[in-house]
Amino acid sequence: MSRSNGRWDARWYPSKAVKRWPALLRRPPRCGYCGRWAWELDSGLTADHKTPKAAGGSDKIKNIVLACKPCNQRKAARSVGQFVR
Prior knowledge:
Largest sheet: 2 strands, antiparallel
Strand content: 15-25%
Number of strands: 4
Low-confidence stretches: none
Mean pLDDT: 89
CATH class: Mainly Alpha
Distance between the termini: 31 Å
Helix content: 10-25%
């Protein structure tokens, strides 16, 4: 749970996503949808596209949110607006 130099401990993040988007380490390691912390999850966090690539979303960091696997799977290819309704 430690944080140093404005970054959280990398072990709580999906490693492939951190390699691609190092700025994710500045975000708290919690699901952007349900709010659960990474250390509360059995399945860990994933990187999810807020606007799905299938709907024209980009790979830019502003379109990426950390999500637990259950939320990511439930959201599927829907936008955040469609998912939270």
